Every structure is written in C-alpha cells, then in structure tokens.
Backbone:
C-alpha cells in the first residue's frame, strides 16, 4: 500500500526495530527484578520470548552491569541452570527533589539505593535554581557517566512531562519553567518530570513495603503545606488529560476551613486537613499564649502531642477527622485496594489512626470491599525516592 512518508515517519520507521529490542530488554529486566533468583529458561517460559532472544538480552544486561549471575539453581533433569539477579551499585538514576524549603539531588542504582547525595536550600529565584540543578546534575554526570544514566525530577506543582516543563509552581509563582529542557541541552541526559504527589505514588509502587508492592490500585495522600494525591491505577500512575488528575486537595469538604487553600478558597480539603490548617488550629487553641501559626513547627507540635499536650492532641485529632472525610470520598469514588498517607502527620499514626478509620467507616456503606488505610513505610524523603522512581519506572515500565 503506498503511503506518504514525512521525515517524522522515516525517523520512526528506523527507530522501530531498536524500540522492540528496548521493550524486550525492559521485560526481561523486570522479570529479574520481580522474581529473582531465576534462570534464562525461567524468563523464556514466563515471557514467551525465544530462548535465544532471552540469552542475547541477558548478555547485554550483564555487560552493561545491570544483571549478574549468582551461581547454579536446582536442575530439572539436565544441566543445572545459572541463576540471575539485578546487580546493585551501578548508578542509573539522578533524582532531583525540589521542595519549597530544600532541594536534594541524589544518584541511585537499579534497586533505588542512593549512592551519592547532597542538598541545598531552595531559592525562590527560578534562574538560580536552574543553574544550581543543572550544575549539580552535570557534576554527577561527569563522575558517574554511563549510557544508562537518566534524570527524574519531582516538583511541587503542575508539570508537563512531554515538554520537560513545570507549568506552574504555586509556592514560588513560577510559570513555564523549562528545567527539563535545560538539563537535556546541557547534559544530553533523558529527563522525566512529574509532580510530587505522583512521584510519591511511584515511590510507593517501587519501594513501598512488600504488601503495597503487590497492590495495583491505590491512592497516595501527601499531607504537607497543602494536600496532594497520586493515583496508581493498574500499576501505573493515572495522570489524566494534560497530567491534571489527582487535584483532590481542592475537593470541597466543608464551608470554611481554618486557613485559605493555595487556590484562594476556604472550602477545599487543603483548607481543612493540611499541615497549615493543623498549625492554625493549634495556634487558635493556644490563643491565650499568642502563638503565631507560622511559627509552629511540625517537630514541636508532634513532640508536644507525644508528651500528651491537650491542645496538640486535640488539633491533630480534629485535622485527622477532616483528613478522614476526604479519604472516604476517595474510597467511595475509586474503591482502591489501599490509601497510603505520607507526610509528618504519619509520625503520630497511632494517635490518629482510630479517628481516621472512624470517619471512614461511618461514611462508607457496608458491603463495599474494605480499603486499607496505611501510613507510608518509605524511609528518607518520599519525594526524593519518587524522583528516582520516575527513572526506574522508565527502565522497567512496559512490563510492570
Ligand atoms: Zn483549593
């Protein structure tokens, strides 16, 4: 059949055979990650790939230091098979985690283990941040340069991965910040960019405790200055049209929250259940002591709650009740297997868990499948792990 061929078509025709190989490589790598130790024959059986194709891919993964042999397995008749596992230690991901106060840049291997890391205070000047981030990545790229190295960036705002752009970072009022493009231009490294809530959802998917790793439908709720949610649907981040899904921080849960939401309204979930609202409640309960909500630190508030301070406990329980209202809305709408809460508030999980479940159980009809509500089990910064997870998702994605 004759067909008009544009330059773009010609390019994709040429790219196709390589692409197929890449996909097969991802499939094999993911099987090894997921089920190791296993043999080449195990992979061929599980994937329906030709035995010779699997062997060729394993050879290339071995020579790229991504996979290693770990001795012989048990024989099912013939020669004992050689078992494989993911090789640790090769830097494959540079994760950049930009938060309103601090920015971290870390290098990690295929298992998500950080091999090098440093942090600096986030500047409100986008140009300064471009310079610092590009400089940091260049330095790591010089030190750890290899063909598998890629960059993942987690940002507190609306991102457009196709263009490597941050469309809007509300905290600093940055618009159309072309950070991904700049990094690519300066270093030649591939860049994946996403918002912090999606990054956290990916981190749970890749690094969460065993139980969560097997769950394919869940929602993460990040309680910070605002509230962000990330939706994992069938083992993938659900981004919606233009990546705008998951803005549940702005769902209406009441008439007038104690603080103003980042969108300017008072009726949003954020206005009722964010850290900012918690601090404001705590300050209001202590109004005799003239506490400014802005001066309240989460560390201080949590320490007080741990020691039984009535106002700290009361403000936490009140906030968790509103957290529960939003969570029950998510459960009613999505019926996910799990809701995973992250942020400082999970440090007092024992204190708030009952009140969370209480609200959720009251509002959800019986006979609906029960959704587990858990505190995140991630260690270190979940958003930094998410930034690394953005890269790992690319390495393993098509088979996950
Ligand atoms: Zn809002």
Residues:
């Amino acid at each position: 059949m004759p067909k008009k061929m544009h330059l773009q078509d010609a390019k994709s025709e040429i790219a196709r055979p390589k692409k197929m190989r890449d996909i097969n490589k991802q499939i094999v790598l993911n099987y090894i990650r997921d089920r190791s130790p296993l043999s080449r024959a195990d992979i061929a059986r599980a994937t329906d790939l030709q035995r010779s194709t699997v062997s060729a891919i394993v050879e290339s993964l071995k020579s790229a230091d991504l996979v290693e042999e770990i001795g012989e397995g048990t024989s099912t008749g013939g020669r004992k098979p050689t078992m494989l596992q993911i090789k640790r230690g090769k830097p494959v991901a540079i994760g950049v985690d930009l938060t309103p106060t601090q920015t971290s840049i870390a290098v990690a291997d295929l298992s998500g283990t950080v091999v090098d890391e440093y942090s600096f205070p986030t500047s409100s000047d986008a140009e300064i941040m471009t310079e610092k981030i590009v400089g940091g990545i260049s330095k790591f790229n010089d030190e750890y340069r290899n063909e598998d190295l890629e960059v993942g960036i987690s940002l507190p705002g609306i991102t457009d991965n196709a263009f490597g752009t941050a469309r809007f970072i509300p905290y600093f009022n940055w618009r159309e910040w072309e950070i991904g493009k700049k990094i690519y231009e300066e270093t030649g490294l591939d860049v994946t960019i996403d918002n912090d809530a999606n990054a956290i959802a990916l981190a749970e998917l890749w690094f969460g405790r065993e139980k969560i790793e097997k769950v394919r439908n869940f929602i993460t709720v990040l309680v910070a200055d605002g509230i962000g949610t990330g939706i994992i649907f069938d083992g993938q981040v659900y981004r919606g049209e233009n990546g705008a899904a998951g803005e549940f921080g702005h769902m209406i849960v009441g008439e007038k929250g104690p603080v103003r939401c980042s969108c300017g309204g008072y009726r949003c979930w954020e206005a009722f259940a964010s850290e900012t609202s918690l601090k404001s409640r705590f300050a209001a309960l202590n109004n005799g002591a003239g506490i400014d909500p802005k001066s309240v630190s989460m560390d201080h508030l949590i320490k007080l709650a741990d020691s039984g301070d009535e106002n700290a406990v009361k403000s936490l329980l009140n906030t968790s009740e509103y957290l529960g209202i939003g969570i029950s809305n998510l459960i009613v709408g999505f019926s996910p297997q799990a809701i995973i809460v992250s942020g400082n508030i999970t440090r007092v999980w024992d204190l708030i868990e009952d009140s969370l479940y209480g609200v959720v159980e009251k509002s959800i009809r019986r006979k609906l499948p029960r959704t587990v509500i858990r505190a995140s089990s991630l260690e270190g910064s979940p958003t930094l792990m998410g930034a690394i997870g953005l890269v790992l998702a690319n390495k393993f994605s098509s088979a996950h």
